[in-house]
Amino acid sequence: MSKAVMEHADAADVFNKDESYVDWHDETLWFVRTKRDKSSKLLPEWENLRETASQIKNYVLSHMDELLETFEKNAKANGIHVHWAADAAEHNEIVLAILKQHNVDRMIKSKSMLTEECHMNDFLTKNGIEVIDTDLGERIVQLRNEPPSHIVLPAIHLKKKDIGDLFHEHLGTDAGATDPQYLTEAARQHLRDKFLTRKAALTGVNFAIAETGGFVVCTNEGNADMGAHLADVHIACMGFEKLIPLQAHLGVFLRLLARSATGQPVTTYSSHFKSPREGQEMHLVIVDNGRSAQLGRADFRNSLKCIRCGACMNTCPVYRRSGGHSYHNAVAGPIGSILAPNLDMTKNADLPFASTLCGSCTNVCPVKIDIHDQLYKWRQVLVQGGHVPQVKEIGVKAMSMVLSQPRFYQWSGRLGRSVMRTLPFMVNNSLNPWFKQREMPEPPKESFRDWYVRNRE
Amino acid sequence: MSSREKILQQIKLNKPTGSVLPLQYTYESDYENTEAKFKEILEAIYTEVIVVDSLADLKIKVDEMYAGVVNKATTIPELADWADFSLQMADPHELEMIEVAILQAEFGVAENGAVWISDNHLQHRALPFITQNLAFVIPRNALVNNMHDAYKRLTDTTGWGCFIAGPSKTADIEQSLVIGAHGARSMVIFLVEN
After folding, report:
1. Burial B172-188 (b: 16+ CB within 10 A, else e)
2. Which residues of B touch A223 (CB under 8 A)?
3. Averaged confidence pLDDT in chain A
4. Can you give the pTM of this predicted structure?
5. Which residues of A touch B154 (CB under 8 A)?
6. Which CATH class is domain A43-158+199-292?
7. Strand partners, A214
8. Domain boundaries defined on chain A
9. CA dist A348 to A12, A263, A289, Å?
10. DSSP strands (E only) in A274-403
């Protein structure tokens, strides 16, 4: 986590050093994408569901303030303590204050990408709080002192041997053991002890329902429920865009979420929290952290419709071959690349360029976010704002000069073709990024334009 | 200005102009046989569905299935003799010893095998998660086709409820499916005719 931040392309270079590893990563994620396809095709109404979900979320974006106020009123009536955090720092302070108030210095946590975005674990650790992630994948990356590389599959970048070695070191499993069943059992025993001894549990929120003042948390492992129902204090953290108007709308979203994520018809547990159990305290932290600014960017506000299924990552040819950590952001992949520049344009200027703009992300998105269009639009905003490295800018300017002057374009085409023919080493070298992992094409004898002029008759 | 006011004000300023909610947000699923679909989906997620005639028959069935098992708990009065673990405690941590729990639940959903259970049926929310093995009992006629139907039926206004579909699972190690992550290691659903 403390490693210096590398640009996406450089980090992808490192990721690509081991070809068989990249192939494995690529195929594993494509397998998940295939499961999504099979599962979605079983529902004849799939496309209608996507459109409906998209419209509901559009409504949410345009009524966000009213819905939040209704939600808050109902949540409070249910006995939930509601907090508001303008940014990551305030979110972290709120969580710390709740823990201090209860004299708690050890907390368990189920998956919450928001707390990753806020770097909450680091903050709490520095303040003397031990935080243990209870989702298996998240526990694995936590023990490795790494962030998750995927929002749904946090340890998808690791082989079972890596995990076997890690568990041998930290959980005392047999040296060399790699059986997933055995390793999962070891984690179950290790974490059950934490569930039984921790007084505070933090969870994320998948959906918050304005109508009922309740929220829904989805897991396959059951870790959110194990934590929340045993702890004296339950803290749930959400970005404000998690809101939906009606409980009945969950019918649409729960049908889409797991099918898009892993191809399951639904997650094992879809837990509906509305009020604390007797003797328990329930807190809900509503976080902005740049979301209200994003809401004001007409071209990019749709990114706030995201329900965090990860389908865009699984399908993305760049994500599959560069790995989640290359994106140096809590949310990786195509959706992360349109969310991250809003948080920090300078630091994340490389991310919208980590795409081929093939559009596959947009095609699989269950709430129909125009992801690849936004990637394209962010590139323009970032270049105009001077956030893109000069080399890229010079390249783009040179390209635009050539392309805007037909004669110059024809001349440079001829020059290029003759250079490739007579002096191939000028382009077939490591200074030319196009030459990496490819052979340069045989240069044609003439351009299409020359051919057309000759053959016009 | 508090963060609450600041956030709400910024949202008011920045939100797009109003769009309307879609009028249709429910869809029908057309299954030839809802119960057969329910069974088929649950089999795929390692869950057995057993039909019994009555609660008396259920008692005979579970006596046979769980013979020799200790630390059995139930919320079903007719199975009181079968259970050897009382749920009358204040602290849910004590549930940790439970080997198998047979719990009354409300209804099931055919499209995904989920079963709805809530505070209405439980004095301890932790119970369906902390027990090593889990069984639900629902009326045979309490099956709906899909999640839209489920929410139409869901008039539950209690403080907590959950759709549970099969045993706890994970695929976080190289995408290999492992049953029994943190919650129940196995799941059985009894459909009671009468």
Report:
1. bbbbeebbbbbbbbbbb
2. 181-182
3. 95
4. 0.94
5. 247
6. alpha beta
7. A209
8. 8-17+310-391, 43-158+199-292, 409-455
9. 15, 31, 16
10. 281-287
